[in-house]
């Protein structure tokens, strides 16, 4: 999971948010909000 396309990263981020209601990294959550 080190080399992943940017598009895939976005998808994984959404999935991770769904799996983890409370984000471990606030910065990542902020990016999702934007």
Gist?
Helix content is 65%, strand content 0%. By secondary structure, the chain is mainly α.
Blueprint (SSEs and pairs):
Blueprint: H1 6-19, H2 26-33
Protein architecture, described:
This protein is mainly α and 34 residues long. The protein has one domain (7-34). The protein contains 2 helices and no strands. The chain has helices at residues 6-19, 26-33. It is flat, with a radius of gyration of 10 Å. The termini are far apart.
Helix/strand structural class: mainly alpha
Give the averaged pLDDT, no decimals: 59
Distinct helical segment count: 2
Tell me the total number of β-strands.
0
Main sheet, how many strands, which sense, barrel?
none
What descriptive keywords fit this protein?
mainly alpha; 0% strand; 34 residues
């Amino acid at each position: 999971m080190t080399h992943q396309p940017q598009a895939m990263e976005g998808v994984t981020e959404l999935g991770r948010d769904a799996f983890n209601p409370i984000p471990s990294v606030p910065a990542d959550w902020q990016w999702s909000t934007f």
